[in-house]
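WARN retry 2 of 3 for item q-0093 after timeout on previous attempt; input resubmitted unchanged.
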Amino acid sequence: MTEVMARGGGVGVNLSTLRPRGSYIKSVNGTASGPCSWAELYSVATGDVIQQGGSRRGALMIMLDDDHPDIEEFITAKRIDPLTNRPVAIEHANVSVAVSNAFMEAVKADADWQLQFPTRANVAADPALAERVVPGRVVKARAIWELICESAWRTAEPGLVFIDRYNERSNTWYYENIRCVNPCGEQGLPEWGVCNLGALNLAAFVTDGEIDWADLAEQSRVAMRFLDNVVDANLYFIEENRQAQLGTRRTGLGTMGLADALIQLGIAYGSPASVAVIERIYGTIRDAAYDSSADIAAEKGAFGHFDREKYLQGQFIQELPEPIRQKIARHGIRNAVLLTQAPTGTTSLLAGVSSGIEPVFDFAMVRRDRTGEHIMYHPLLQAWKDAHPGEPTPTSSAPTI
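OK item q-0093 returned
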């Protein structure tokens, strides 16, 4: 983890293989401290020890399965301690619960929920563990669900990753087990999996109130080739990362500037008119990306674990247009996973556009960083101000970030 972070990367860790707090350890005649104590250790390493480039701390996601006996402690780990006014643990990491289909069915039915170790997901990954399962407490599934909701309301965490659904719909369903996600949660990953993201600036494709659809498709194709080249250009200093990535060639083409593009089109974010435009935007990117990856496969070969019959059975692949599916059947596909929508927080600030697929947070804000305090105006507002000198700024607040 520290080696990855020291080189500017982020890490996701599922701690469900760790024994519950208080478990007897025969080899040392002691008890286990549980996954939450280890999560706190990882959090300290991420926030207080690792400095990327001497200034930026690492990025970390920690997850726990929904049936681990310590799940309640994990869910509430970010609650504020009233004595110190500080979170009890895990200050410098994002946390999410790996939610199974069985748990959601139990919530729906108001049924009991059996906690156990090893967890169901770990047993599914290694059936030999079934003989070692120790049942834990029986709780109401809805009680766990309410605890998640209340903690998310109080502290904005934990997040939820519907891990069974992710595995079912993953293009890599037939050879990978998605066990965690990257630090911001946008891409599910197997053990040692590598996250390789890139984003198109949608605002750049709008001219005079119209989207250049042909250019969007063409640049999506270019972006796929670029991201595929990154897979080969990267230095894999951990061999397991190299093997995982070269076998899958996972990429993550996404977007930034959606809200700005809609503003330039004169369409309200979230309106019925915006839905039709958004469907066309992401349909265009999807089709161009998959078509491009199939072309690259014809040129350079498919990803290492490509199985023509099984890949074409994937739920998402079956939703692609028939001509693209036929091209994949003929040539294979270069990248098993192609699309991912990331938050693009820092990169969208650098590009001067709205982040990811979010609406504009505010058109004016106060930002405090190492260089001081600044009032930042959104580029669209700044353009208005430049065109209307001396007129009052049409904004009502300036939040601090």
